[in-house]
Amino acid sequence: MANNIAKKASGGSMFHIGRMSTVDLGEETINTEEQDLVKLRPSEIPHNEKLLSLKYESLDYDNSENQLFLEEERRMSPMMSGNQSLVHLWPHRPPDRTHCLLHRRRGGVPGWKKYEAVKHYIDKFTEDGGLSVSLLLWAILNSAFVMVGAILVAFFEPIAAGSGIPQIKCYLNGVKIPRVVRLKTLLVKVCGVICSVAGGLAVGKEGPMIHSGAVVAAGVSQGRSTSLKKDFKIFEYFRRDTEKRDFVSAGAAAGVSAAFGAPVGGVLFSLEEGASFWNQMLTWRIFFASMISTFTLNFFMTIYKGKPGEFSNPGLINFGRFDSENVEYNLYEIPLFIVMGAIGGLLGALFNVLNYWLTIFRIRYLHRRCLQVMEAMLVAAVSAAVSFAMIYFSSDCQPFKKDSQEEYPLQLFCADGEYNAMATAFFNTPEKSVTSLFHSPPGTYNPPTLALFTLAYFLLAFWTYGLTVSAGVFIPSLLIGAAWGRLFGILLSLLFPSKNTIWADPGKYALMGAAAQLGGIVRMTLSLTVILVEATGNVTYGLPIMLVLMTAKIVGDYFIEGLYDVHIRLQSVPFLHSEAPATSHWLTAREVMSSPVTSFNKIEKVGTIVDVLSATSTNHNGFPVVVNSGTDNESGRLCGLILRSQLIVLLKHKVFVERMRSQQNRRRLQLKDFRDAYPRFPPIQSIHVSQDERECLMDLQEFMNPTPYTVPEETSLPRVFKLFRALGLRHLMVVDDVNRVIGLVTRKDLARYHMGKHGLEEMDLAHA
Amino acid sequence: MANNIAKKASGGSMFHIGRMSTVDLGEETINTEEQDLVKLRPSEIPHNEKLLSLKYESLDYDNSENQLFLEEERRMSPMMSGNQSLVHLWPHRPPDRTHCLLHRRRGGVPGWKKYEAVKHYIDKFTEDGGLSVSLLLWAILNSAFVMVGAILVAFFEPIAAGSGIPQIKCYLNGVKIPRVVRLKTLLVKVCGVICSVAGGLAVGKEGPMIHSGAVVAAGVSQGRSTSLKKDFKIFEYFRRDTEKRDFVSAGAAAGVSAAFGAPVGGVLFSLEEGASFWNQMLTWRIFFASMISTFTLNFFMTIYKGKPGEFSNPGLINFGRFDSENVEYNLYEIPLFIVMGAIGGLLGALFNVLNYWLTIFRIRYLHRRCLQVMEAMLVAAVSAAVSFAMIYFSSDCQPFKKDSQEEYPLQLFCADGEYNAMATAFFNTPEKSVTSLFHSPPGTYNPPTLALFTLAYFLLAFWTYGLTVSAGVFIPSLLIGAAWGRLFGILLSLLFPSKNTIWADPGKYALMGAAAQLGGIVRMTLSLTVILVEATGNVTYGLPIMLVLMTAKIVGDYFIEGLYDVHIRLQSVPFLHSEAPATSHWLTAREVMSSPVTSFNKIEKVGTIVDVLSATSTNHNGFPVVVNSGTDNESGRLCGLILRSQLIVLLKHKVFVERMRSQQNRRRLQLKDFRDAYPRFPPIQSIHVSQDERECLMDLQEFMNPTPYTVPEETSLPRVFKLFRALGLRHLMVVDDVNRVIGLVTRKDLARYHMGKHGLEEMDLAHA
Questions:
Q1: Does residue A514 sit in the same domain as residue A563?
Q2: Residue where a domain stops, chosen among A11, A39, A55
Q3: Cβ contacts (< 8 Å) between B538 and chain A: which residues?
């Protein structure tokens, strides 16, 4: 039973990938399992992070240097220079235009239509006393927006849920997450995030933007769309996993670059979150892409804002500049920053733990799509109600100043000439609220307002993350942190009044709080420092920000890993961390590998190949090719590696020895044929092989990778791990001392081992 | 004959490594060769970059996982957590204190003693008309300083010459440059750079600072000094190449961080210049080190400046803040920036080409130490004379303003109430001059002054780089660039007067020019962008700086590689670039490898081992261990890899099978014994082995690396390259299909191939 539940838990997915299969199980199964679950006590709740899902495949990052490849390279050599310049300068404008477009639409909806209406009604009903109508109106409007977004995500493309960063992180790690870089995902993501932001949820649009950047990059690099059945016949060279992954890392960097106006931060984000296979050349290309991205955005933003040519909008978010007079900090503030970092780490860990339990609850009970949509609508309504209640009961009316930076200083329930501070925090777009918390002059917000706001937004944000909507966690985290950071600053100045003017501006503490909270939740350090420095346009605070982020990471890591890692673990993705678990040197390849291995002969019967590929129980993707002739001693020796996708293409084109002989002038298969089939190779079932053809032979020598990487069976786990990860392998052959294949190491075999509380632990493999 | 010359050219070194051996050749040889050289026409000048020196060894970055290692790890497992935290938080304060100390002394000498005296005499003699005395005084003072520095470098530690960045770059690439991270090198470097800066040469102190950081890190990580014969018995775990290299990368980052106040730039510098073996964990540690570095510096600087606690001095150089009002730029300035980038690329390429020829001249004719010292003194005297002449003939007298930022507005030959602009540019420390060019109000410098200054400083700088003194090229490049950049800005406002106020401030163009010039010379992009942004404290110019740096790199790369790479090539270092040359897939391991290979049996006679190690003709550092028993078929199969250093330790401790048997309670050898011998393993000649002992046997199984990485002989060069570089290997075994060793690939075998003008070219190996 426990196994059953575990499977279920892993199947009903956080990323909503396994949705179809769960539904296919039928009502009956689900009901039985639900009854089982009810009987479980909390302590018996299955920890599905002990499982590793088998449904994720690796990317083929390793180049298969078969004869076709060598021939093509020889052909290309004379025209190398032209091609290289193509590789150098990827055209990366498209992602940015998209971002640009998104922004305009997103910025528009919350700022104008909805609040206009609500404000009108509130103004009207404040006089009449019938406030319930405006609350209802507000809640319904929000829920309607969110419903559209949730339906889109739940019914059309579940992978578009959430921020997309965990998925991109997995992809960059080398895991093939199904449908993560498809056009449909992009469309749903874009529409979904507009709906969630317009629906007033506690979400940001930066994570989705990073995901969008990655999708656009993956699409552009392929020069075609399989969804639209349109092939532009360009960039055919890039049609393989290696190139596509490099493009995706550049796209993610361009996304960060456009979202925060942080090109260097974008490069570092790709590096920190996905630095599996990295080299100098890639850095330099990604940097170029990021630069063009922020440049293009800047250009269109200036046109949009009516000041063409003045570059001052490097990113969608602009947290505003800190004035150069106030950007000093003092030695005795350093301990305070460290304390803030620790608070951020604690709050972040709390956020992650709460969200972890909530996610497990969701996986178990909220696996039906309608339930998911309803939950999203409920959250939208509650968000509206909470903010309404907070604004209503808030007595924080501030006199309206002329030089105020508020774009929407809402009067609401305040007297004339005053505006409601709580409403400013709740009613504006989250980005505006963050800027307001950073830069508003001292006294703009009362401590109780900030405390209440922090509490309410914290609860809303942790409830919201993981909903079936497209939404990011960056901005909510920054907002929570800015609120308690400002509170921290105000309390400081109350505790030690007029001791020094350095306390005077709580905006500095708001910035540190924002950094601490975000760092505590996502645990990025280097890239986040640079992103925040670039987004605030201020280098002086770089040092304290680093300090705060490091403290937050150290404190937070003590309790639980970062939010993205939590979700990756819950999804049972075979994610390879940067190093093998410590003290695992005594484990050898022999213990780690999968065996026995299904291998093919150099010249193999078509029937055998079809049978092996059709076997659902194994479903292997790579097969060693071995020598079958010669003495006993020689037989079984490794001579190459062939992939399922290659075999499928060979079968499809019926590249059989007999046919090749009979038709002398038959066109030889080229790499182009493999590229055309990429990335959606047909399943073996769709390929018809007649009974006669089953008796034919296939010569694999020309197509296999003749020199796959191998390790001897005594190789230790860290050594295997290092080789596997450094080269981005998918299959690593384990051979004995006469070069006979005795096993195969794949990603799952390595990801299974991790450091638990009691030393090295091994996870089970789940087929769900 | 050509061969002879080539050897010579490679022996007389840029880094002054091979000095001793050249001198040992004796006068006779040198004279013959010089006569030969005279007959050569310019076109016949030997291109010694076609040679690859065999004197450089690789680092052992790959861990030898022998039984000792596994046992130690098993022992360490229970106390793992404590140790890990040790590994996490390297103590990195020492480098920063050193930097701090350096700065105070360096800042002091040029600012105070010398200029005081010269100014006094000039003031005096301007009235008397006897100016030649003051010129003489100045030139003698400068030459004296430089002489001390040059003698230190030439006679005590030639490796301390130059900026040290090429050497550190090689070290991070995995090349063991002799003596590069020794205490003596640090001392000579520090004293040398003080002398060069005080001697008024066109040099900076930032490169040496990066080298110093690396040395300090390497020293601290070892917990002992072999030079001082002091062992603190700490950090013994770090006594191997792998750990030391990681520390050196952190030290270099800390050096950048302290020099420019750029912690993120420091991390990126280590990444961009040395990203051979990189992982997330290392990034995060290096980031921590950089942060502590800039922090410590900041702390001591504030105390030094008398404002304890106010953190506003993140780096030694402070280029000053750009005011927030003037930091806008406009769309139509973008093409101008690109043009500036192109100019920078061209001038940088010119600089590199000139310096390249000069270096070849120096290698050939200036190989004697006294000549080198004399050249350095000559340069110092000429520098003094040139600046004196420029100041004397300059008529650029500017009225003295009260709010001027000049710390030393020298009156010199100007009327009262005015100061000499040329003198300001020449007489201040280069750092001050750069700041002045960036921030002085429009009209401070006349165009002719700037043009003359650019020309003079360009010539002086290219002559100076490569002298036998410790000196960096960062600041001179920035200064040249700032001068012509400012000139560019002034010319713009003259050409298009009062069209727009955006031209008004030439400081912006000075910054772009500085970036372009430095980028054109050293060809860094990502890290240099961040360093400049952090050093100027301004994010807005990040985008144009990137653009300028990229253009400079693209334009410059068209002509010649970066200055550091030029010097690495001239030094014939087997440097591995990030990727194998394109279109080299048809080369296989069989063609690339060295063979035959000297291998040992698992149980080998001591005499054989001593003989092999003593053989001067081969001088191998790694030996395959093969199976010697069994049938013919099995014999020769690879079963491990043992290093020369390991064999030396074994011989020293006389770990012979017979002795082990006779003394049952003899202490077994531990990893500690190997670590104690690190890094200066004694030469084989110093180990005495008696005739009886030669007949003993040694069991290598326990000490060898049982699972070295191997490749089959058909593996292509790029595949071998990728494996080699990604894992930081030193030896890669090539095996046939029954696992018999048929060859060995080392760094030289891979570095030999490079893309030349006519496709793939192969370099010769030089034993010099």
A1: yes
A2: A55
A3: 539
Mean pLDDT of A565-585: 82
Residue of B70, B267, B295 with shortest CB distance to A586: B70
Q: Which of residues 711-730 of A touch B (CB under 8 A)?
A: 711-712, 714-716, 718-719, 722-723, 726-727
Amino acid identity of residue B537, one-letter, is G
Domain at B683, CATH number: 3.10.580.10
**Residues B358 and B449 grouped into a single domain:** yes
The pLDDT of residue A663: 64
- Tell me: do A25 and A143 sit in the same domain: no
Nearest CA in chain A to B268: A268
Please give the residue of chain A at the shortest CA–CA distance from B78.
A759
Structure tokens at A285: 């290309």
Q: Which of residues 341-400 of B touch A (CB under 8 A)?
A: none
Cβ atoms of B272 and B522 within 8 Å: the answer is no
Residue A231 forms contact with B (CB below 8 Å)? no
Residues A298 and A351 in one domain: no
Domain annotation covers residue B299: yes
Task: Clarify whether residues B668 and B762 are in a common domain.
Answer: yes
From B387's Cα to the closest Cα of chain A, the distance in A is: 36
- List the one residue out of A514, A453, A553 whose CA is nearest residue A317: A514
- Contact present, B326 and B508 (Cβ < 8 Å): yes
Give the count of beta carbons closer than 10 Å to the beta carbon of residue B363: 21
Kindly determine whether residue B65 and residue A716, on different chains, have CB atoms separated by under 8 Å.
yes
Q: Is residue B393 part of a domain?
A: no
C-beta separation of B626 from B741 below 8 A: yes
Start-to-end C-alpha separation, chain B: 15
Residue B761, strand partner residues:
B754
- Residue-wise pLDDT for A440-471, tens only, equals 777 778 888 889 889 999 999 989 998 888 88
In this structure, what CATH number is given to the domain that contains residue B259? 1.10.3080.10
Tally the domains of chain B: 4
Q: Are A63 and A729 in contact (CB under 8 A)?
A: no
Residue A321's SS3 state is coil
Q: Where are any strands of DSSP class E within B185-306?
A: 224-225, 230-231
The residue in chain A having the minimum alpha-carbon distance to the alpha carbon of residue B536 is A539
Domain boundaries, position B602: 589-766
Interface membership of B315 toward A (CB under 8 Å): no
Q: Which of A309, A525, A711 sits opposite B331 (nearest CB)?
A: A309
> And the tokens for A490?
């105000």
> Nearest chain B Cα to A523, which residue?
B284
Has residue A63 been placed in a domain?
no
Do B489 and B609 lie in one domain? The reply is no
Contact B138/B226 with Cβ under 8 angstroms?
no
* B583-629 pLDDT, tens digit each: 777 788 888 888 888 888 888 888 888 888 888 676 778 888 888 76
Strand ordering across the sheet containing B638-643: B600-601, B622-626, B638-643
User: Residues 131..150 of A with a Cβ closer than 8 Å to B: which?
Assistant: none
Q: What is the dihedral of CA B256, B259, B264, B269, to 10 degrees?
A: -20
A96 and A7: one domain?
Answer: no
In a domain, A105, yes or no: yes
Q: Is B710 helix (H, G, I), strand (E, B) or coil?
A: strand
Out of B570, B605, B633, a domain closes at B570
How far the first Cα of chain A sits from its last, in Å, is: 15
Same domain, B299 and B337: no
**d(C-alpha A342, C-alpha A554), whole Å:** 8
Q: How does pLDDT run across A209-237, given as a tens digit for each residue?
A: 889 988 888 887 776 666 666 666 666 66
Residue B92 has pLDDT above 70, yes or no: no
Of A583, A571, A564, A759, the C-alpha closest to A18 is: A571
Give the separation between CA B689 and CA B656, rounded to whole angstroms.
11
More confident residue, B639 or B760: B639
From chain A, the residues in CB contact with B312 under 8 A are: 328, 540
